[in-house]
Task: structure prediction
Amino acid sequence: MTTNLTKYETLEHQTFDLGKLPAKQKKFFEEIKTFFEKNPSWCEFGSFWFNQLSSVFKNVKKEDIPDLPVFKICQDMESRLGVKQRYARLTDYRDILAKIISEVYKSRYLFCKEVGIDEAFLSNVLKKKKHFSTKKLQEILDKAGYDLEIKKRHAFGV
Amino acid sequence: MHPYTRWKFFDAKLLSLFGFYTKAPNFYDGAYTDPYTKKPVPDKSKMYILAVERKDLPTLKKFIKGVVGPLFRQKCIYFEVKGNVELVYSDREKIVLFP
Result:
């Protein structure tokens, strides 16, 4: 747990400079962080911060709410609680692969045809029964137009 | 167990499609009999409450059937409107898209 935070980094490596938050958002963050530090249940925290935010920022247009830095930070704190309490898990390359297939290719068949792999093997990979080697994964991503990236791991945001 | 990103995606979709939602602060523990295997399955559920206009109900049901069910690999979702309960069955062919 980091105290006196100046920056907040999400699980997806998006960084927010807390010092630059508008005063109202900063105060809201501090209040929600205090509640977060009591380790409430994942459900309770998710309900709490969202209801509080809806009330405190009621003058902000609804469609603009998800763009508030404090919205993204609170959402990330909720994700961290879910992972910590084992109601949710961190992602791995298979989740990202599944998302690409779902959003870009619409079917596993079309994806496999495009990148030249066996559909049954892909199914086992997505079910976590088998793995692609790093070399094979790189080949697949090359054909699909994506890159592998290595990122430095930072401390948990809060 | 679902990746946290799936929950974020779900929340974002709810916001973009319906404007707002309320999350119940507790889990709902229960069990159901799987209609396919006939075996009891223990279950822990989250509840979301949405205020939508009557004209938007078909959109909500379509969202549950085509996105929510497959996304969370649920065969069906408990759906209640003004006390009337319905089980909305997921599009099974879409379930395979979300491991």
User: Anything to note?
Assistant: Residues 93-144 of chain A form one domain. The first helix of chain A runs from residue 23 to 36.
